[in-house]
Write a structure and sequence with these properties.
Rossmann fold; 10 strands; alpha/beta; 304 residues
């Protein structure tokens, strides 16, 4: 007989023998019952009464969280015994040489199982925004001559300009210190004034000391842009996203390039009953909580 036909007959004989062996083992019950005949544990078909996601009388679907958790537990409990029984019947088999119980245990763990209850998600922190504060007539008012009642000045700052020494008498706006501290808690703060650095530097130093808000970023007239004979503040210079910037200023024209970012502040001179900064405190909270600064500013302008 040619080798090809001999190999074919040998293969057919092996298949016939394998089929006969399978039939005998099924008849003897060595392979157990068919999957459809296996008893399903009671804890799989009945949901616990304390489970809030299903009613005790409601049927449990194959994809419910209760069924999935019970089935995972069933696999973990019976994985080892199933592997041992198989190895006892077929010692030479290597199919269960790997410990599948560990795989089932990992699959049933709350950390990795897709059926585990959803973990609580911490609220997302609001995006860090930038607040620009004007200085003169917004936070303070200053004069270069002694006031009629010198004691009314909150502090004095020496300065030198064009070789001449001067004394600056500064009046703080009511609520200035509290407003600064709140801004520093919630935002990246920049004090941007159109005044010269030789004057503004000492005033900002004293505001930092009195309010205890720490070192603030400063921008002076040198950072402003000349526009139609006046100084304006281009917000693109600060290096932050425009939609996350708010500028508090008593001069609306300084934000002519970015009017949507402007929070107009009333002028302050020496009114000890001024309440403007206190009334702006709620706006700071809305700025911090909102997705973008422009949304809170638009609501403020509409009177919300």
């Amino acid at each position: 007989m040619p080798p090809l036909y001999a190999a074919h007959d040998a293969g057919a004989g092996y298949c016939s023998w394998q089929q006969q062996l399978t039939t005998e083992r099924r008849e003897k019950g060595q392979w157990g019952k068919a999957p459809a005949e296996r008893a399903v544990p009671s804890f799989v078909t009945q949901a616990p009464r304390s489970d809030p996601v299903s009613s005790p009388a409601a049927p449990i679907s194959a994809h419910s969280s209760v069924y999935g958790a019970a089935y995972d537990k069933y696999k973990v409990d019976h994985a080892d015994s199933a592997a041992q029984a198989y190895q006892q019947q077929y010692p030479s088999s290597q199919h269960y040489s790997y410990d599948y119980s560990q795989t089932y245990a990992r699959a049933a763990s709350p950390q990795l199982s897709p059926r585990s209850p959803r973990q609580a998600i911490a609220p997302r922190a609001p995006r860090r925004k930038t607040v620009i504060l004007d200085m003169d007539e917004t936070l303070i008012h200053s004069v270069f001559e002694p006031p009629v009642y010198p004691a009314r000045a909150d502090f004095q700052c020496p300065m030198t300009m064009d070789g001449q020494d001067y004394i600056t008498y500064v009046h703080k706006r009511p609520g200035c210190e509290e407003f600064l501290r709140r801004c520093v808690q919630l935002f990246d703060v920049i004090i941007w004034t159109a005044s010269l650095e030789c004057y503004a530097k000492g005033v900002i130093d004293e505001l930092e000391r009195l309010s205890g808000c720490g070192r603030l970023r400063r921008m002076f007239r040198e950072s402003c842009t000349r526009h139609n004979g006046s100084y304006i503040k281009e917000l693109t210079k600060i290096g932050a996203a425009i939609e996350d910037v708010a500028i508090f200023d008593n001069s609306p024209h300084v934000a002519v390039l970015n009017p949507r970012n402007l929070v107009h502040v009333k002028n302050f001179y020496d009114d000890r009953n001024d309440r403007e900064l206190y009334e702006l405190m709620p706006l700071l909270d809305r700025l911090w909580q909102g997705d973008h600064a422009l949304e809170a500013i638009a609501g403020h302008k509409r009177g919300y």
